[in-house]
Each structure stands twice: as C-alpha cells, then as structure tokens.
Amino acid sequence: MTSKSMLRFVSVARQTPEKREVAIRRHDFAEIYAGWAEAKAEEQAARCSQCGVPFCQVHCPLHNNIPDWLMLTAEGRLREAYEVSSATNTFPEVCGRICPQDRLCEGNCVIEQSGHGTVTIGAVETYITDTAWEEGWVQPVVPPRERAESVGIIGAGPGGLAAAERLRRRGYQVTVYDRYDRVGGLMIYGIPNFKLDKQIMLRRAQWLKDSKVTFELGVEIGRDMSFADLRARHDAVLIATGVYKARDMQAPGIGLGNIFPAMRFLTASNRKGLGDTVPDFEDGTLDAEGKRVVVIGGGDTAMDCVRTAVRQGAKSVSCLYRRDRANMPGSQREVQNAEEEGVEFRWLSQPEAFHGDDVVTGVKVQKMRLGPADATGRRAPKPVEGESELLDADMVIMALGFDPEDLPTLWEQEDLPVTRWGTVKIDHGSKMTRVEGVFAAGDIVRGASLVVWAIRDGRDCADAIHKYLTGLEKVAAPEMSPSQKAPAAAE
C-alpha cells in the first residue's frame, strides 16, 4: 500500500474495535474493547484525509504527528509508525485507551466535520504500540552518554514519569519518589482495569527501571524525608505530585457513614484487582455488591466510579450531575458505555441533603435548571424551587474533583509560592518556581486535568531542567531568602 491509498473515508465507513457484550463485560474488569487485526487497522488508518492543516494534531496537547503515523500504518510500515508516535508521546498505548478523543483529536478531525465520521485515532494509536511491544520494538532508553547531574522527581504519575524518561534520554541520573508502593499514580490506582489494564502500566514501570530510572517508593516527602534533604541530594528537583485532595460539599448529613470520596473507592477496587489485601473492601465497607449506589459528579472520575460499582454487583447505580448531558466535562463515550451497562443518569440534579441515622439511607435530590453563563462561560445551574425527591442510597461516592494539598505546610517550605487555589506557581517560560532549581509540572501547576496534559507538561519541564542544568538558559530568579537557596550537597 502507498500513500495514494489514503483518503478512503468516502468508500470506507468509520469502524471502532468491537466492544465485548454488555452482559459479559459488566461482570468483570477486563478491557471492554477487542484488539484489531492488522488489515483492519490499515483500512481504518487509510481513511485519513491527510489534510493540509491537521486539526487532530493541533488539538492534541502533545501535538502528536497523527497524520504521519496514520499514513505509515496504512502502508503497513508499523515500526516506523511506532517511532513517529513515541517521539512525541511517552505513553501512546495509555493515551490511546484513556484520552477523551471525542473532545481532542477525533473531535476535531476534518472528515468528522464533513459528516463522514472521524478517523478512529485512539484505536490506531493503541494498535501501533501494542504491536510494538509484541514485536520487541520497545527498548530501554540508552543515552548517548551519562551525565553526572542528578534530578529528583516527586511523584510517579504521568507527569513525573514523562519527565523521567526524557531526562534519562539526555543521560541525567533520575530518582523518582512516590508515597505509594507502585509506579503510576492515578494510572495504577485511579483508572479502572476496564479502561487501562494494570499490566500495561506495570510494563512501562519496568521499562523505566530497565532504562536506569531509580524509584524510591513508599517515601512521602515531609514525613519520610524532608524537602530540604531532597534538594541536597539533587542538582534539580521536579514537583509532579498531582492533586489528590478530594473536593467536598456542605450539606446536611454529609458526615454520615458510607459516604466516600471517589479515590478511596477506586483505590480499594484497584488494589483488590492487583491482588492486595484491602480490609475496607474485605469487610464490605467499600464493596458495592448488593447496594444502591449514588455517585455525585459528571467527570471521568465519576464515570470510573459508576462503572466500577456496576462490576462489583451493585443493586442499582445512579449518577447525579447538576448540569445537562451536553455540558458535562466527562467523555461522552464513557457516558454511553455506562448507560449500556445499566447506569441511570439524573441530569440537572444536585444533592440537597443526606438522610440516615448513623449511615446514609437516602439522598434528597434538588432539581436544577441552567441559567445564564457564568464567568467561566458555562451556563450556571440554578435550583428549581419546590422540585426535589428522595433517592434511596446505601453508598454515596463523591466525585467532585480534586484540589492540591497544602505543600508549603506539609513540606515546611513556606517560601514555596502557590496560587490562591493551592497550585504551585512557576515561571511558565523556565518552568521554575521562585525557589532556585525547583521546578513543577502537571496537575500541581494547572489543577486537575487529563493524563495527556500531564505528559505534555512533564516533557516540557524536562527540557527546561536540561536548559537550566547546562546553562543554555539563564533564569533570572527573584531575590531569594536564605531558606530558598539550595542547601549544600551532602558529603
């Protein structure tokens, strides 16, 4: 096949990999999409129009060279397709599975706008990298030369790992610290198996270890090691902690039992799937089996919660969201999957109070309407007076988003600058904080966002650290107090 075989969108219909039957998939945690055969991947990649202005690439946070690797796939040149794909993306097989393509690359595909149905970019991306692993094309990073400088990275999530890989390619000595016992952050403990099989992340973790990235797991900065000691160990430090503090709401009865934050519920389920002993799951506390589950929120985390509850055998699963379907922040593909699996969505609904004695037994639900747009440009939800109902519930899961932890206090670094939202302030040119040699990237800078944005930020920050350590870019930091200056290196 040659590039002349492209633009086949007029003769070949859009097709996605087959989903497993609902009756089967809702009872296990296996990924719901089957893989593609080579011929089908080539056929679907050949639908690309190779347009002059590739809006798929423009709207990808990583600016992946999508038209190029689609053409290479269509021509059967898969190894080259993988090389092009992995040049801009540290984890293409992850993004192919969990990115909300309907809001990013596929949602801006030119042939989608012309009514022919988008190219299935995410599925092709997944196929390319899965094939690369099967064929042994994915090899550990071997830098052209080793450098003496070391970089400490706080956080083994997508941002920290992306930075670690890019720094290793330049020969830096990289150590990643994380409070958890496995590498991956939300990719291992937040995202369920049916979207991202844990073996995919464990395989990448081993690849990074084989690339000579050092991991110190179960280490919490501020508890097991001071931030000052960490700085003394390394020539530069990257803060890539992500944001884990669950947002709460104020309502009567919010303190009742069996009301849980989303990450506690998801982490317990993922740990159970990994074979860990999870007492809160074993005793039934965090097991949704036989329960009437109500999930509050409309983002991708809420979708992970409702679909996990279905698989645990919940009696019923309802999702409350205060806006309508068109205005929800989560992926529409995930909403469709959840509906197929039996989740009931209650749009324009907001919890007003939680009923029960010691544990929750019901949620008083207030009906909402959409008013004029607020400062964010989204139509603000307003209560409809006199319209509410009581919804039975044995378990309530709060998926309202995440905020940063108070890092200056936790790390005894009062001079670490943060915004009024608690995110770390950086100079967006140098990626450095006001503290010399300390950088930050990912959700801890931009707030809770997508994995693909964390990867982009981590890669960009790695480039900035390289410029700093090699003197390619001199950073004029503000006048620093003695506590901000880097401590002397340990003997």
Protein architecture, described:
This protein is of the alpha/beta class and 491 residues long. It has 3 domains: 3-135, Fumarate Reductase Iron-sulfur Protein, Chain B, domain 2 (Orthogonal Bundle), CATH 1.10.1060; 150-243 and 404-484, FAD/NAD(P)-binding domain (3-Layer(bba) Sandwich); 249-401, FAD/NAD(P)-binding domain. The protein contains 19 helices and 15 strands. Helix 2 crosses helix 8. It holds the Pfam family Fer4_20.
Write the layout of secondary structure elements.
Elements lengths: L21 H4 L12 H8 L9 H4 L7 H9 L3 H11 L3 H7 L11 H4 L7 H15 L14 E5 L3 H12 L3 E6 L7 H4 L8 H13 L3 E4 L9 H7 L2 E4 L5 E2 L12 E3 H12 L5 H4 L9 E5 L3 H12 L4 E6 L10 H9 L3 E4 L1 E8 L3 E14 L5 E14 L2 E4 L3 E2 L3 H4 L27 E3 L2 H4 L4 H20 L21
Keywords: 4Fe-4S, Iron, Iron-sulfur, Metal-binding, NADP, Oxidoreductase
Cofactor: [4Fe-4S] cluster
Protein name: NAD(P)-dependent oxidoreductase
List its traits.
33% helix; FAD/NAD(P)-binding domain; 19 helices; alpha/beta; 491 residues; Fumarate Reductase Iron-sulfur Protein, Chain B, domain 2; 3 domains; 5-stranded parallel β-sheet; 15 strands; disordered C terminus
Broad structural category: alpha/beta
CATH class of the largest domain: Alpha Beta
**Named CATH architecture of the largest domain:** 3-Layer(bba) Sandwich
What is the rounded distance between the termini? 61 Å
Question: What is the beta-strand fraction?
Answer: 15-25%
**pLDDT below 50 for ≥5 consecutive residues: which ranges?**
476-491
Task: Give a short account of the largest sheet.
Answer: 5 strands, parallel
What is the CATH third-level topology name of the largest domain? Answer: FAD/NAD(P)-binding domain
In total, the number of strands is 15
Shape: globular
GO molecular function, one term: 4 iron, 4 sulfur cluster binding
Domain FAD/NAD(P)-binding: 151-458
Organism: Marivibrio halodurans
Protein name: NAD(P)-dependent oxidoreductase
